[in-house]
Amino acid sequence: MSSPFSHYFNTNYVPSDHEIVTIRELISRGKMIMDDVKRRKEELQHEWRELKKSWEVQKREVEGHKALLSPIKRIPRDILSSIFLAAVEGRPDRPQRISARHPAVVISHVCQYWRNFAISTKLLWCNLYIEVPLCQSLRLHKLRWSAKVTKLVDMVQVWISRSDDCHLSVSLTDGITPGCGHYIEQSFSQGSEFDQLVDTLVASSSRWKSLKLNIFIPRTQLPSFPTIRLLTLPPQTTPILTELLLYCDVEESQDINLISQTLIAGSSILSTPTLRSLTIGPRTLFDIVRTPVVWSNLEHLDFGGYPSRSPHRFEVQAALTVLAECSNLVTCNLTLDDTTLPVAVVRRPIELPKLRKLVFLPYESHLPRGFAQSLILPSLRELEVKTGYSECTPRTHHESGLFEFCDRFGSTLERVTFCYLALTQQALLHCLKCLPNVTSLGLVSIGRLTPQVDVLPLCPKIRAFRFQAFQRDLAEEALLDFVAARRRGDRVMMASGFEGEA
User: Fold this and answer.
1) What stretch of H or E contains 249?
2) For position 446, what pLDDT does the model report?
3) Count of helices and strands (H, E) across the chain
4) What pLDDT score does 48 carry?
5) How many whole angstroms separate alpha carbon 22 and alpha carbon 4?
6) pTM greater than 0.85
7) What is the DSSP code (8-state) at residue 406?
8) 3-state secondary structure of 476
9) What is the pLDDT, as a whole number, of residue 493?
10) Three-class SS of 356-391
11) Closest to 383 (Cα-Cα) out of 358, 361, 403
């Protein structure tokens, strides 16, 4: 609305009596227009609210229809189960422990359909990776610790129930640390929450396919400690157990005889005839040579050696005693204590016709002479001699048991790794000459590498060369010269695979 008085706004102009009447008429007319605008505004706001409600209804319907077309809903159940299983598997070196954040639990909380399907997918629940809460850090909070273990027992029971009749892979880490003292006596005694956990596991032993025990047995309760029951299960209670990984420690060395009697003299899980893979960790105190293992059934053997406080020693002669019984081994990993002792001459070499991979960890980085001559390994394809713990003095090829292995089995070997510092330069060259079919070569501690470029072609089929050394020990110029010389001589195709660790 235009006004004839608009040019007087915000001035000191004083209207006449006649103008006052006109101004009042303009004000009355303006108020009427404002009322019409306000009423129209309210009508539009009401209409907008109705339009917004309609839009929201349509949006929900559109989203609902779109959800019906979601690709995940059209995935066949067999593919969906494969996705679920892949999520549960995770990384091999970091298994998913039982907890409220386990992928199987997370999947079962997405929607009702997924929950029903996940619960009915038995394979999601057949891996029992159990970590008992550390008791040492909760020594003054027994109720809190007990509540945690009680919850863990409930979850383990749920896992076992949902796995139905599937084979079980069980891993138990007991969370006990040395020095817990009297607290262990109270919290891990018979009838405790931990005892209930062991009872739950024992009740499912007929379905165990794989068992890993990482346990500590306190001195105060050695005869009746709950986890002892897992070790002393008779073979008939584990009829399908094929894999056993045992990492068992005892608090004090005077209990060694008692634990040995438990596992050797009587019936134990080690005597299960269905075992095909056996791993015994480096904290073991009992004599493994005397254990009632059915060695002839094993296909995979890994022994981590004895701790320093053990009265037993796993020397080459003990290794030969074990190997003589393992006629079906495919892979073998042994930690040897004293490799300075001579190897007794055997009347008949030990034949392992299926052995393809052999790994040694000798204490002194050396293998004794005569060891290789005691073995017949027609299928050996991979040999690894890891670095030991003591000082290493280089040996000539006439003194080296490693050279003896290379000389005796080199024609079949395809992958070889050993400690370079255990050999003189000439001994190293002699070893390499014995490996014409090796495609992967690994050298550990190569700081003194000074290659000879005028020697005969060595390892002509090599495709991967791996080295491992501390930076201070790595002679980079010598290594580069070595690679350059091999390339110039066309003696190895390094481009197809060159790996290194420093």
Assistant:
1) strand 243-250
2) 47
3) 14, 14
4) 94
5) 10
6) no
7) H
8) helix
9) 38
10) CEEEEEECCCCCCCCCHHHEECCCCCEEEECCCCCC
11) 358
